[in-house]
UniProtKB/TrEMBL annotation:
Residues 9-63 form the Gamma-glutamylcyclotransferase AIG2-like domain. One of its GO terms (cellular component) is cytosol. GO terms for molecular function: gamma-glutamylaminecyclotransferase activity. Belongs to the gamma-glutamylcyclotransferase family. Gene3D superfamilies: Gamma-glutamyl cyclotransferase-like. This is Gamma-glutamylcyclotransferase family protein. InterPro entries: AIG2-like_dom, GGACT, GGCT-like, GGCT-like_sf. It comes from Teladorsagia circumcincta (Brown stomach worm). Pfam families: GGACT (PF06094). It comes from the Eukaryota.
Amino acid sequence: MSPSLPIRVFVYGTLKRGEPNADVLTNTDGQYRFVGEGRTKTPYPLIVASKYNIPFVLNEPGKGY
């Protein structure tokens, strides 16, 4: 059963366009569509670390870009 309304998904890190896991969101029936970029009102630091390049956001409001 497919939803009748579009579902919007916000992603960051490796799911973003051009990143290694972006193809996970690609749908073979062509229903995937990039809508636009987003930002938080308050900046938070995004860290990409470990040998697996796992992204995470630190709970330090005002310290990001």
